[in-house]
Amino acid sequence: FSFLCAAVSLYLFAYLLEVFSFEPENKIFWNAVGYIGMVLSISLWCGMLILYVRRDMMLGWKTFLVLFLIPTITVVLRLTNDFHHLSYRGYITQRTPGFSLLLIQHGPVFAVQMTFCFLLMVFALLLLFRQLFNASGREKNRYYILIAATLVPGIATGFRLLRAQGPAFDD
């Protein structure tokens, strides 16, 4: 849980600095830093759910590999994007009063990462619904909360995945 909170905090802090930076180089830097927290968050969330559901088990190396291999590869590709342009192809900044937006033209790695995130969300929901049907009394309320906490970003990820093939530039 602590690692999940750290990853989300890293993403939010970097996004805040990205939004309030005016130089494109600073925006790209903070976007890359925030990307680390963003892509690790879903894997950490699923890992936390697995540990919550299976309280008597630790995450094995195979599960750890499945959860973190693609996010690790996408982070490395994101940080080395200048050499291959697989993570993003280009960017523009759009100035508005008070701040400027970074609009990124995503590469093929983005679609892979978003598909992976969506599949992890589906896995997490299936795991939670299975536990919900086996739960009793007050424990069901906990699973309702966890399902809602998974469903909302899962739907957003699904829409984002659908948009990955749409407009050329995306924030």
Give the total of beta strands. 2
Order of helices and strands: HHHHEEHH
C-alpha termini separation: 28 Å
Q: Which parts are unreliable, with pLDDT below 50 for 5 consecutive residues or more?
A: 166-171
Contiguous helical run count: 6
**Computed CA radius of gyration, to the nearest angstrom:** 18 Å
Strand content: 5-15%
Question: Structural class of the helix and strand makeup?
Answer: mainly alpha
Globular, elongated, flat, extended or rod-shaped: what is the shape? elongated
Structure report:
This protein is mainly alpha-helical. Helix content is 73%, strand content 10%. The chain has six helices and two strands, in the order ααααββαα. It has helices at 2-19, 24-53, 61-79, 81-84, 108-134, 138-163; strands at 88-96, 99-106. It has a two-stranded antiparallel sheet with strand order 1-2. The longest helix is centred in the N-terminal third of the chain and has 30 residues, at 24-53. Residues 166-171 have low confidence and may be disordered.
Strand and helix layout:
Blueprint: H1 2-19, H2 24-53, H3 61-79, H4 81-84, E1 88-96, E2 99-106, H5 108-134, H6 138-163
Antiparallel strand pairs: 1-2
Summarize, please.
The protein has six helices and two strands; from the N terminus they run ααααββαα.
List keywords for this structure.
elongated, 171 residues, two-stranded antiparallel sheet, 6 helices, mainly alpha, single chain, disordered C terminus
